[in-house]
Known about the structure:
- The chain is an alpha+beta fold.
- The protein has five helices and six strands, in the order αβααβαββαββ.
Amino acid sequence: LxxxxxxxxxxxxxxxxxxxxxxxxxxxxxxxxxxxELEDIAxxxxxxxxFMVDNYAALDGVLELLESSITGIExxxxxxxxxxxxxxxFSTYFAHDGSVxxxxxxxxxxxGGLILRSPNDKIRFLNxxxxxxxxxxxGKVSESSSLMT
Length: 149
């Protein structure tokens, strides 16, 4: 059991400017007490932040609504994510010439790639698959190797 009181949590200063979504799954949320708790959790207005579904399979229908709401909140501009959901710097390589290579998993609509900062502070995004592959792990690991002959 959670020892914190829901009303105290919802009224805490940490909750200011937080948009909350609540999803009730199954018939248990048809009773007034459970429904009231979900209404308390969800930000107002409830018709945009509270969802009720009969089963977990029905969550797919809610997913698109949540995605559009969340990407609007996060500030997505245009039709593609740039670095909004990436983990830039998840892996980092410092080259001998002063360049820094940052892995950028999830950048550009989940294509991933690398961010190269040259010694003169010029920054470039490196990825050959910006228009093709999606959901890749490009940028997860950035390493260096040398060939010994």
